[in-house]
């Protein structure tokens, strides 16, 4: 990977990486996203856990047909309704706990001033919410710029394809070169799988 002198352009780390540059040229600017409704995005992250993209999309669509992605609606829905759309017992419990923990939803301000690790720890207190879900929340709800979700299968596949890395330690070590913009690089790594 080539060095870059531009510390303010998050895409500089992507363009400087010989393996990521063609993906940048093909897909344009990809990066973290700041969701309008962070609670809704957290619900999406929970529904996406441990399933294929296609399965997750189908479950989300069925869930949206029956329940709004807000705390009140999730508390009001019975377990059978949530299970009928394809949610596991673990995901049903996680959504219920999130609705209880954040009865008014989530505002971006609720997490301002917290480090990524502090956000992971807070969300990790909820049953069924682990590092993967917290990382997806950091990337796609809060729009954090320096997240590298090495626990994600797509990231591991992309890193193996692009760099031949086999272990998470190798992947983390390589990703250090992308700091403080690892979220941007991650979006292109996903495109390589």
Automatic annotation (TrEMBL):
Cross-referenced Pfam families: HhH-GPD
Keyword Protease: no
Ranges that cross the membrane: none
SUPFAM superfamilies in UniProt: DNA-glycosylase
Alphabetized UniProt keyword annotations: DNA damage, DNA repair, Glycosidase, Hydrolase
InterPro entries: Alkylbase_DNA_Glycosylase/TA, DNA_glycosylase, HhH-GPD_domain
GO MF term list: alkylated DNA binding; DNA-3-methyladenine glycosylase activity; DNA-7-methylguanine glycosylase activity
Domain HhH-GPD positions: 47-193
EC number(s) stated in the UniProt entry for this protein: 3.2.2.21
One GO process term, biological-process aspect: DNA alkylation repair
GO cellular component terms listed in the entry, alphabetical order: protein-DNA complex
EC main group: hydrolase
Organism name: Halarchaeum rubridurum
Protein name: 3-methyladenine DNA glycosylase
